[in-house]
Amino acid sequence: MQRHIDPTAPSNYSPLSQSQRRVRANLSQPGYKGEWSGQVQPALVASFVFLFCLEACLWVRNLRLKRRLPGPFAWPVVGNAMQLGQMPHITFAKLAKKYGNVYQIRLGCSDIVVLNGDKAIHQALIQHSREFAGRPNFVSFQMISGGRSVTFTNYSKQWKVHRKIAQSSLRAFSSANSQTKKAFEQHYYSRGHGTGAVRSVYENFKNLNEEFFSFVKDKVVQHRESFNPDVTRDMSDAIINVIEHGKDKVLEKEFVEATVTDLVGAGQDTMSTAMQWIILLLVKHPDIQAKLHELIDKVVGQDRLPSTEDRSNLAYLDAFIYETMRFTSFVPVTIPHSTTSDVTIEGLHIPKDTVVFINQWSVNHDPLKWKDPHIFDPSRFLDENGALNKDVTNGVMIFSSGKRRCIGDQIAKVQVFLFTAILLAPV
């Protein structure tokens, strides 16, 4: 479409609307900042003033209620989120040096109490285990397993029953169950697994993650259809038996899928992360890798794969695994806790319904508990006779503690032991 130009206008003339001419005239005036700028700047200033006043009011309110704990200054809206960085557990430990092992941060509009160090965390999770057994009422927690997760639901009578059922089911197939150990080991013999076992495990984890929920549901349906109360084939049967066929039916049948999802999901995540760190540390410390190869070759030989029966003679391998858990702290911060009542830790008052972060990394790197905590040294877990020192291994915190301690910690340790031993086996 052609533009019509007034032939009487100067050569440098272009037609402008009335509003455009007004803007051009305003721009030519000295000190003009524009209508938009004049409108936005006061609004921004007013917003910041309001947010700072709101922050000050919240701070004064907390101070009057004696709820304000030591901690860094929190910015309006974002709180301390921008200060945490990519490794919050390291930031938490650094803040503890300045504010003490019990301090408060803010994420968004929520106050969070962070616990660091062996002493404060032991006091909270062991001496006051009930007060710290709650879970925050996060929307994301309610979405997991249909709101029936034993890991993410809040502390209640129903939760205690649910946890007891899940724990008893796992105990039947833990490291104390020799039949389960043999079945687990036969899986590798039957499929011809050798040093390629870890590769297969990672592939299984990947596939399981993609079809996780449908996988669990299908398995539970299969177990229901072939269920025999006189024969407990595996953990799913044990859970179905207690929840659906027990004398006291306190839980709905939907809790079966939720419980299996919790146990399988937690094991999947822990195992994959642990094995990644184990492989990395074996590569980084070839001297330790060579020592483990020599030990397994001596104890097991070259004509079979390692089994759990060899574990008592492979103390250095267990020491390596414990040092991997301590040194890496691959679960550096636990799932958030929530206080079920007012409680005092190290002389500081923590109100009911406070969200609490437990910094496990700080326990595993506490210089008051570990000599040279930043040095990787498996021998710290061995006594003078070369046996595993149980008192020292119990000091590693990777599965939380107290009423929220991971119920699958023992079977997880057995699995990590077998995978690592098979990985290093000369077969």
Automatic annotation (TrEMBL):
<keyword id="KW-0503">Monooxygenase</keyword>
<dbReference type="GO" id="GO:0005506">
    <property type="term" value="F:iron ion binding"/>
</dbReference>
<dbReference type="GO" id="GO:0042448">
    <property type="term" value="P:progesterone metabolic process"/>
</dbReference>
<keyword id="KW-0408">Iron</keyword>
<dbReference type="InterPro" id="IPR036396">
    <property type="entry name" value="Cyt_P450_sf"/>
</dbReference>
<dbReference type="GO" id="GO:0004508">
    <property type="term" value="F:steroid 17-alpha-monooxygenase activity"/>
</dbReference>
<dbReference type="GO" id="GO:0042446">
    <property type="term" value="P:hormone biosynthetic process"/>
</dbReference>
<dbReference type="GO" id="GO:0020037">
    <property type="term" value="F:heme binding"/>
</dbReference>
<dbReference type="InterPro" id="IPR001128">
    <property type="entry name" value="Cyt_P450"/>
</dbReference>
<dbReference type="Pfam" id="PF00067">
    <property type="entry name" value="p450"/>
</dbReference>
<comment type="similarity">
    <text>Belongs to the cytochrome P450 family.</text>
</comment>
<dbReference type="InterPro" id="IPR017972">
    <property type="entry name" value="Cyt_P450_CS"/>
</dbReference>
<feature type="compositionally biased region" description="Polar residues">
    <location>
        <begin position="9"/>
        <end position="20"/>
    </location>
</feature>
<keyword id="KW-0349">Heme</keyword>
<protein>
    <submittedName>
        <fullName>Cytochrome P450 1A2</fullName>
    </submittedName>
</protein>
<feature type="binding site" description="axial binding residue">
    <location>
        <position position="406"/>
    </location>
    <ligand>
        <name>heme</name>
    </ligand>
</feature>
<keyword id="KW-0560">Oxidoreductase</keyword>
<feature type="region of interest" description="Disordered">
    <location>
        <begin position="1"/>
        <end position="20"/>
    </location>
</feature>
<keyword id="KW-0479">Metal-binding</keyword>
<dbReference type="InterPro" id="IPR002401">
    <property type="entry name" value="Cyt_P450_E_grp-I"/>
</dbReference>
